[in-house]
Amino acid sequence: MRSGSGWRLLAPALVLLAVAFVAPVGMMVPTSVRPYVPLVGITGGFTARHYIRLLTDSYYLEIIGRTLALGLTVTCATLVIGYPVAFFLARTRSRGRNWLTILVVFPLMLNLVVRTFGWIALLAQNGLVNQALQALGVVDGPVKLLFNFAGLLIGLTHIFLPFMVLVLIGAIQNIPRDVEDAARVLGASWGGAFLRVTLPLSAPGILSGSILVFVLTISALVTPRLLGGPTYQVMSTLIYDEFLARLNWPAGSAQSLLLTAMVLALVYLSSRLARRTGARA
Amino acid sequence: MAASASPAVSVAAPALSVRRLRKAFGPVVAVDGVSLDAAPGEFLALLGPSGCGKSTLLRIVAGLVEPDGGEIVLAGEDITRVAVHRRNLGLVFQSYALFPHMTVFENVAFGLRRRSVPPAELGPRVERMLELVRLGPLGSRHPRELSGGQQQRVALARALVTEPRVLLLDEPLSNLDALLRDEMRVELKRLQERLGTTMIFVTHDQAEALILSDRVVVMEAGRVEQIGRPEEVYRRPATAFVARFLGRANFLAGTVAEAGPAATVVTLDGGGFSVVAAPRPGLVAGQRVHAVVRQEAIRLERAEDAAGRPNHFAATVVFHAFAGQAHHYVIKLADGRELEVATPGAAPPLARGSGTHVTWSPDDVILLPAGAAGPGGAR
After folding, report:
1. Measured between alpha carbons, how far apart are the two ends of chain A, in Å?
2. Is residue B95 less than 8 Å (CB to CB) from chain A?
3. Would you call B111 and A186 a contact, using CB atoms and an 8 Å cutoff?
4. Residues of chain A contacting B93 with CB distance shorter than 8 Å
5. What is the arithmetic mean of pLDDT over A102-126?
6. Between 20 and 30 A from B95 (CA), which of A154, A168, B271, B277?
7. pLDDT digit string (tens) for B161-192?
8. Residues 143-172, chain B: which have Cβ within 8 Å of A?
9. Which residues on chain A are in Cβ contact (under 8 Å) with B89?
């Protein structure tokens, strides 16, 4: 292949990336350093105030911390719940396999808002989950599952689980059965073979599934808005309010750029990690 | 059982003994009541076409597949219900199945680490084994940086370093190209003689089985067709399947005309030709048989040299091809019957269409009762 033709193949994607991602993000950079005067709007001049406030004000730091914590917990939850499912689906030869795969993917076919309202009905003070918990005698009074961390964790884990499972199925199917069998014949118990061979060899899938779920979680808007209510904020809902409710575009731009920088940093770090593990696998 | 290894070997208790082993996958019976013994230090080949159950049998012995019935006895101990990782067997896979995320050294050390071999002992043992398979300096490489032959040797070293009671090999050479395969055959045989490890080797390659093994177990459709030394299964096949699967042979259908103490005479169907074979007990006049003659047992001669001998027929060459070490002919007898003949490559060739005479010794005729011959076969 001549050196030029590769670029030509990439061109449509590059143009789309430039128009839909680089340009809007770039346009936010000048906006994010403009002063904002309430009731007047964006004024001329330069200020780093929005960034300083974002990184020093405890209100914003709490939201940033909460967003990252949510991303991390949802990623761990989908990984812990998804890995056994993916392992089973990748390895079973039973006829139930296709049905189970459909069951895993099924939530993706439902409208996001509908799914989230479903969770509101389930998690409410007198919702199904609380009724069941009380009927079983697990708790005395209703547990608060909405408009807090638990609610977001449950809702987002449910929504992003299929992504994790689908990525993991591919990764686990790529591991030859012979390699696991070899470990067991060489004296490793089932668990030992899993820990020393299967798990390390599925690391690339774990990594890409985790990045996907983490990025989707920290940038999710609809689910945190509906399950978190107007007061329990994460970064995406904060940015939404800043732009559309308070009309403070400079502050919103600074927040957006920080979120973008966090995502890019994560993708960069994980691709370096992948290259290191990939060199071994 | 056709017990026939060297006397020193046959008196010892078997290293591995398989009794009436059975395994079905749904309606398909993969292993159907197989019994066999491997003497200590013996190189046993399981030979058969793909799908004959030989690999399943090996995986049952290794413990990766659970049998429906029967038992596996390893040096006097019943291991049928023992977990895979406690059997202390070695298994070399056709795909090598190396651990791609570990170095060559770590691959070989894996089994020793599972056995909690102290570090002071582990390093030297791995190094010694790598030297033995001529991979000494490659310990820090990863499997994907090695050639196919080198990966194969890592797989061997990894299986042998734990000093398994029996080493099982599942078509270990079939992923290598022809030249490398010949080289690895020699290496494998030398390694086996040097270490004295009992080896059970699965292959579909009849030449490989004959060259490498002390005894060959020929399998078909989940059953053992014959067990014997390589010359035995080749020269005295017990069934038509074995005759067809090992080497090319001409099958001549006929009826026993005379079953005497000096010779057996078979009248061939249609044409009135007779074939003289060595005496064989158990056959009676009038019985339907196949007279099987290997292609290399047939000689092409001038009429005056062949005259007066048994099994001597005039023939015409209808096809000739030169294959280096041999000439391949198809010749036609007076009754229209065609025979495949192979003669040494050094002999001057006969042109297509030329007349000749064919002859073969009565000792080279294999007689198989026709009931067992069937229309099936390896090719």
Report:
1. 28
2. yes
3. yes
4. 178, 181-182
5. 89
6. A168
7. 999 999 999 998 888 888 888 888 888 888 89
8. 158-159, 162
9. 185
Cα–Cα dist B377/B48, whole Å: 12
B89 touches chain A (CB under 8 A): yes
| pTM, full prediction | 0.82
Q: Residue B377: is its pLDDT beyond 50? A: no
Give the mean model confidence (pLDDT) for residues B41-54: 92
Query: Is A186 close to B101, i.e. CB distance below 8 A?
Result: no
Burial class, A95, CB count within 10 angstroms (exposed 0-12 / middle 13-18 / buried 19+)? exposed
Angstroms from B155 CA to nearest CA on chain A:
10
Q: In percent, how much of chain A has pLDDT > 70?
A: 97
CATH number of B7-241: 3.40.50.300
* Sole residue written with tokens 């159950």: B53
**Residue in chain A nearest B102 by alpha carbon:** A280
Q: Does B236 touch chain A (CB under 8 A)?
A: no
Where exactly are the structural domains of chain B? 7-241, 249-372
Per-residue pLDDT tens digits for B268-323: 887 678 888 888 888 888 889 999 999 999 988 876 666 677 888 888 999 999 98
Tell me the two tokens of residue B239. Answer: 């069934």
Q: Which CATH class is domain A22-108+144-280?
A: mainly alpha
Question: What stretch of H or E contains B179?
Answer: helix B178-195
* Cβ–Cβ below 8 Å for B111 and A200: no
* Residue B376 pLDDT level (bands cut at 50, 70, 90): very low
Which tokens go with B194? 């040097």
Place of tokens 């719940």: A81
Of A187, A200, A280, the CB nearest to B114: A187
How close B144 comes to chain A (CA, Å)? 9
CB contact under 8 A, B93 and A281: no
Q: Count of A–B CB contacts within 8 Å?
A: 68
Task: Provide the pLDDT for residue B146.
Answer: 94
Closest CA to B125 of B79, B157, B155: B157
ipTM of this complex prediction, to 2 decimal places: 0.81
3-state SS class at A70: helix
Give the residue with greater pLDDT, B10 vs A102.
Answer: A102
Give CA torsion, residues A106, A110, A113, A118, to 10 deg.
-60
Distance of CA A30 to the CA centre of its chain: 28
Tell whether A181 lies on the interface with B, counting CB pairs under 8 A.
yes
Q: Which residues of B touch A183 (CB under 8 A)?
A: 99, 110
- Residue A34 DSSP label: S
CATH number of B249-372: 2.40.50.100
Q: Give the 3-state secondary structure percentages of chain A, helix then strand then coil, rounded to 5.
A: 80, 0, 20
Query: Is B140 at the interface with chain A, CB within 8 A?
Result: no
Contact call for A186 and B64, based on CB within 8 A? no
For residue B284, give the nearest of B267, B260, B263, B268 by alpha carbon.
B260
